[in-house]
Amino acid sequence: MDLSNPISAVIPTLEGQVLRVLAGTSQPLTASTIARLVSRGSAPGVRVALRRLAATGTVVQDQVGSQYEYRANRAHAAWSAIQSAVDFANGFRTRLDAQIAHLVAESAQGARVTCAVFGSAARGTADADSDIDLLLVVPDDAPEVLTESMSRRVAEGVEAFTGNPANVLLLTAGQRDEMVGRDDALVRSWRAEARTVHGPALLPTAKEA
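Above: the chain sequence. Below: its structure as tokens.
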């Protein structure tokens, strides 16, 4: 799925993004304003989507002077379904993080494991063709059979949940610490963008370091 535009999993066309914008406000918006707020799509495309939505009645079009303004029609019979799709999209990152944490906890067998999301999925730029990059940090003495099984189960579970392949980078705590000690370029990228979704913090704070 398009991770930075999750409503497209339910409403694949530009109408989904337009509805998400309008659902987030009670104020009427112009087409140009909506075009600035959607994550993808051109101004002409937004205008076409608005005309289609106005034709269905899910969006109300009002003429104000020489221009049109648009607002969500929450009285429409279909609005509850639209709102459900919007709520899904708005809460998707939290749900994804919770699912990853659940998969790790379920397969870690009590081991002290840190899992973090990094790369485009952490930056918010991932699309339908993006992989989900995950980092697992396991204890130095964790059995190899456990860590390999956990990596596989987490990767399979994330792909089932999103449709996107998951790339799992597995490190022992010692390997992670060695990379931190030499200020590896990958560590710098983790500091800038990674978010820990399970276990202890991925990296020490500047004070701790």
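The first strand starts at residue 29 and ends at 30.
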